[in-house]
């Protein structure tokens, strides 16, 4: 099972490297990040812990993207989508995040967010993690820190969950 997920990640990296030059020119970095994130869903179990982690990764990815817009930094949406999508990869493949991040060519700000929750990307991810944990004081602090009204978060969260469910539904067909 772990081998299958690792193989999928390795296949994705191989496909991503081959397609990156063409895709970056045609689509731009943000669309490539979204495309890569959605590819991670293909081939993942449809039930069990891995399915739930995949669903949560999708929801985090979409919430990161929506928070970029809500905080007035929509250009960060693609990279933040990738941060959210990869934020649970260590749990999915049962390997240290440090090892996984080292095996991928990631932008420094994405790397810092995943490893240390630093800078803007890290603050967005920390906000989502606090929201998931129900740590409301932390949620308010992180939301204010990135310039998002805390009262906007419930709708952003619900929209993210609905989007994730929709993506998983379409991958079953």
Provide a descriptive summary of the structure in words.
By secondary structure, the protein is mainly alpha-helical. The chain has one domain. Helices cover 77% and strands 0% of the residues. It is built from ten helices and no strands. It has helices at 2-26, 29-39, 49-70, 77-86, 89-93, 97-102, 108-116, 119-133, 136-146, 153-172. 29% of the residues are buried.
What is the secondary structure topology, with strand pairs?
Blueprint: H1 2-26, H2 29-39, H3 49-70, H4 77-86, H5 89-93, H6 97-102, H7 108-116, H8 119-133, H9 136-146, H10 153-172
Helix pairs in contact: 1-2, 2-4, 3-4, 3-8, 3-10, 4-7, 7-8, 8-9
Number of helices: 10
What structural category do the secondary elements indicate? mainly alpha
Shape: globular
Q: Helix coverage percent of residues?
A: over 70%
Write the element-wise H/E pattern from the N-terminal end onward: HHHHHHHHHH
Number of domains: 1
Question: Low-confidence segments, ≥5 residues, pLDDT <50?
Answer: 19-27
Our Rg estimate from Cα atoms comes to 15 Å
Number of strands: 0
Mean pLDDT comes to: 81
The profile of the biggest β sheet is: none
Cα separation of the termini = 22 Å
Q: How much of the residues is beta strand, in percent?
A: under 5%
